[in-house]
Amino acid sequence: MSSVLVGFTFLLLPLLGSAQFLDMACGIRAPNPLTWRAQYAKIAGLTSSPWMAFIHSTDNRFICGGTLITNRHVLTAAHCFLDDTELVARLGEYDREANDMCHGSYCTYRIEAYVETAFKHRLYNNVSMIHDIAILRLQKRVQYTDSLRPICIVTDTKWRRHIDALNPLTGTGWGKTEKENDSGKLRTVDLVRQRPEVCELYAQLTLTSKQFCAGNEYRNLCNGDSGGPVGALILFGKTKRFIQVGIASFTNRQCLMASSFTDVLSYVDWIRAVVNYHQ
User: What pTM value is reported for the model?
Assistant: First the structure.
């Protein structure tokens, strides 16, 4: 993840029904007892992203990012699948170089959640990067804690115009930095939405309506951030929740200007079908 601009989007979104999210326990952060800073980038708040999944192989190779969306499912990108590679989703991860510990009342406990089955969208195209979305079904259900909680997936398409108005969007990941191939601590970056033509110019991709373009001139997601989320903090009723808007899909070699993202709301029927059928 290259250099960042820090902030957040915070909008009041409508209450359109009783069940707006895939998992109603989603998107809630615990108070942050610590603030970390780095020389070149913003380190994510300790409690900012309890839904992040650090996806690695059984021989401990870092593969991609992802997000916990239910107590048994992780959302990621289809291109994160490698032939003959068994995947593990490490949940509750924040600082890869630190042991589990407590910071006041907030404790970080990692879980190595083995993947039982993976569902890649059947129309995924590794050239156009269309339908770059997948779901991992874990062998066992996980128990929610302050440091392990699902991200919000909006299930009502009536939210479309509100979600499309969220700008900038916040991305998180352990991807490549200015000096390292990947980051020890979870990092965050705010990305401004860009016209599709910007991705066509800098990422050499012609986007469809199920993708969107976002990025900044000197700040962007990078290698290793694939599969991770971009989203925004919203006010739902009286509760602040973080919703996932996109999945990091493709960028350019310099990790500058623009990246392509899979639009999550465009796939909500597919997500619900996979989750409901493979509980």
Answer: 0.89
